[in-house]
Amino acid sequence: METMVPGTDIMDISLNHDVAEFGKTVGQDMRIMGPLSFITMTQVNAMARRELHCIFRCLIEYRDVYERDIVRETDAWFKVYVNGELTSADGKRVPRFLCEPVHSKEERIT
């Protein structure tokens, strides 16, 4: 995850590379948890005012389940932004975050 000011070309930013490796088979509708990323309330407020953008990158490298010698890579980038507020179960007002895909690429690596 990385933050940037509006007007910056997303493809020009250098994203953090927290790597989580999994050596297990992942099937349909299964989830994988990666490293956690945090933003401050100051950043949340700047995002709500559209003074700051938050970019989340998901880079996944995996082997094809039917052709084990084929390695595939999916690289997807999302812009996360604040769109109003929600009320949590305990009655607190919390920011409502939405994601918008901004870039996606799939490659076959052999």
How would you describe what is shown here?
With 110 residues, the protein is mainly β. The chain is built from 1 helix and 4 strands. It has one helix spanning 41-48; strands spanning 2-4, 53-63, 71-87, 93-109. A 4-stranded antiparallel β-sheet has the order 1-2-3-4, with helices on one face. Strand 3 (71-87) and strand 4 (93-109) form a beta hairpin. The longest helix is centred in the middle third of the chain and has 8 residues, at 41-48. The radius of gyration is 17 Å and the shape is globular. It starts with a strand and ends with a strand. The mean pLDDT is 77.
Give a quick summary of the entry:
This protein is mainly beta. It contains 1 helix and 4 strands.
Task: List the main descriptive attributes of the protein structure presented here.
44% strand; single chain; four-stranded antiparallel sheet; globular; mainly beta; 110 residues; 4 strands
Using the CA coordinates, give the radius of gyration: 17 Å
Major sheet: size, sense and barrel closure?
A: 4 strands, antiparallel
Shape: globular
Order of helices and strands: EHEEE
Residues in helix, %: under 10%
Quote the average pLDDT: 77
Alpha-beta classification:
mainly beta
Strand order of the largest sheet: 1-2-3-4
Topology, number of strands: 4
Residue share in β-strands: 35-45%
Supply the number of helical segments: 1
Are there runs of 5+ residues with pLDDT below 50, and where?
Answer: none
C-alpha end-to-end distance: 28 Å
